[in-house]
Queue: 2 jobs
Job 1
Amino acid sequence: MVRRLLPDATVAVALAAALGYLLTMPSAAAFWTSNVSLTWLLLPFWFGWRARDAKAGALTGLGMTWLCLAAYYVLPVLLIQGGNTDLVTRYGSRYFILCAVSGPVLGALGAWWQRHPIYLIPLGVAGLGLAERWAWQ
């Protein structure tokens, strides 16, 4: 299973690192692009879909979400803040806690969707991410 997930994991970590780099740019558009939650909802769902069953999907969703969050926060800390971990401890820790719930749930949902392809499920996951706009108002 690791060999099957390695190419996807490499792309996901690179995407997370690129979004983390956008976080360091001074423009508001780059900041909001890097902070969109749709990425963090689709990642565990995708990796769960690649798993064989719901338990493996939940574990894979959790592990990949935490790995990508680490890449997202480590790049700005190393490049911009010179190793100051204030960004991670002040802001990032709450997202690691939230992903402890969303990663396994969406990973298991992705694994379930692999066996029962009801096309409203991925649309619902994407809808959660798109609803973020209204949640901020």
Note: The two ends are 41 Å apart (CA to CA).
Job 2
Amino acid sequence: MAVVKKVTLALTGAVAIAAGLVVYALFRPARIPLIPSALHLADASAGAPAVLGAVPSVVHAFAMPLLTAACLQSRRRNIVMGCLAWGVVDVVFELGQRTGIRFFPGGTFDPLDLSGVLLGTTLAGAVGLAIMRGQSR
């Protein structure tokens, strides 16, 4: 049963990351390191629709705790700790962009990204705990 939980957590996180990459490729002019330029379809002059601006932050904050929990023992506390740890990491990086420290080329501070981190980690906790609970029966 523990293997099924881990695979479910990992697949859920991986699908979320793939969806985030699609959003970047279609709507974000910023280039993703290690992804070929030919896969970046966004027009640098158009910019992303406002509603999609925080999607990468939501997706990252959602996927990383699930992927982390998939690598650890199948325990509920690992879901919660992964959400807290990745939430802190994402908030620190976002606030670092506000102070002018650039962790990534072209990174900009957006308060909606902070909300996206909160939403993503909350969803990760709910989904992760549901996966743990649903497969323990």
Note: The first helix runs from residue 2 to 27.
